[in-house]
């Protein structure tokens, strides 16, 4: 089992560019999550999904979009990148009510 | 009141010391509770689940107090390798989002 994988590990974007952060899990978990973590701060939930075809907003969804076409994949799309989106992005998966397993993160800088 | 609150620390303790962290939560219907550990620039990893009866794993003990709505983590005989940020996590159950605390930073000093 690879667990939760994320690509890319690092990325630098220019203001206004777009990109997709990839997340995949091979544990057949129904729940998946996207978080961002700013330096010295806690995790903030961006979006989550309770299964293929079902997504919902977390506490900081503005500027992001997600899709969940399969159980395994949960990509996060950034449109019109802004410096405020400079952060570390973590994807996680879980069976409902149980522990979350995190990917290694994507470190994004917007200049 | 925040959904989940932790003392951010930092807690600076000498090797061998015992240290305890508390975490309070506001949703009395919360169903499951966890402690995670996060090393600098790494992803959070599960340290232990917190059961109503309390649970112990080596030097680590976690307890739940539903009446006062807090969970605790006790670390005995602290090691340098215990230096990290400890996150408490509360799950409201069903479709509700899992809520992470902002973490308590522990620094174990030689």
Can you tell me about this structure?
- The complex is a heterodimer of chains A (111) and B (110).
- By secondary structure, chain A is an all-beta fold.
- Chain A is 0% helix and 50% strand.
- In chain A, the strands form two sheets. In chain A, strands 2, 4, 5, 6, 9, 10 and 11 form a seven-stranded mixed β-sheet that branches.
- Chain A starts with a strand and ends with a strand.
- Chain B has 110 residues and is mainly beta.
- Helix content of chain B is 0%, strand content 54%.
- In chain B, strands 2, 4, 5, 9, 10 and 11 form a six-stranded mixed β-sheet that branches.
- The chains are: A mainly beta (111), B mainly beta (110).
- At the A-B interface, strand 5, strand 9 and strand 10 of A face strand 5 and strand 9 of B.
Task: Give the structure's gist in a few sentences.
Chain A has 111 residues and is mainly beta.
Write the layout of secondary structure elements.
The complex is a heterodimer of chains A (111) and B (110).
Chain A: E1 4-7, E2 10-13, E3 19-25, E4 31-37, E5 43-51, E6 54-57, E7 64-66, E8 76-78, E9 87-94, E10 101-102, E11 106-110
Parallel strand pairs in A: 2-11
Antiparallel strand pairs in A: 1-3, 3-8, 4-5, 4-9, 5-6, 7-8, 9-10, 9-11
Chain B: E1 4-6, E2 11-14, E3 19-25, E4 32-38, E5 45-50, E6 55-57, E7 60-65, E8 70-75, E9 84-91, E10 98-100, E11 104-109
Parallel strand pairs in B: 2-11
Antiparallel strand pairs in B: 1-3, 3-8, 4-5, 4-9, 6-7, 7-8, 9-10, 9-11
């Amino acid at each position: 089992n690879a667990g939760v994988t994320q690509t890319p590990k690092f990325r630098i974007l220019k203001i206004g560019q777009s990109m997709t952060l990839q997340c995949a899990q091979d544990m057949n978990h129904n729940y998946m999550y996207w978080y961002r973590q700013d330096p010295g701060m806690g995790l903030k939930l961006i979006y989550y999904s309770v299964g293929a075809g079902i997504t919902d907003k977390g506490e900081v969804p503005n500027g992001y979009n997600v899709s969940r076409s399969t159980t395994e994949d949960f990509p996060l799309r950034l449109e019109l990148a802004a410096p405020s989106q400079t952060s570390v992005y973590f994807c996680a998966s879980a069976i409902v009510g149980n522990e979350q397993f995190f990917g290694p993160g994507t470190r994004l800088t917007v200049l | 009141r925040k959904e989940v609150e932790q003392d951010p620390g930092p807690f600076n303790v000498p090797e061998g010391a015992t240290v305890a962290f508390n975490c309070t939560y506001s949703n009395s219907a919360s169903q499951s509770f966890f402690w995670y550990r996060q090393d600098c620039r790494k992803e959070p990893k599960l340290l232990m689940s917190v059961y109503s009866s309390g649970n112990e794993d080596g030097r680590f003990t976690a307890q739940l107090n539903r009446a006062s709505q807090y969970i605790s983590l006790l670390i005995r005989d602290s090691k340098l390798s215990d230096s990290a940020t400890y996150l408490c996590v509360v799950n409201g159950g069903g479709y509700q989002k899992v809520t992470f605390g902002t973490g308590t930073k522990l620094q174990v000093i030689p």
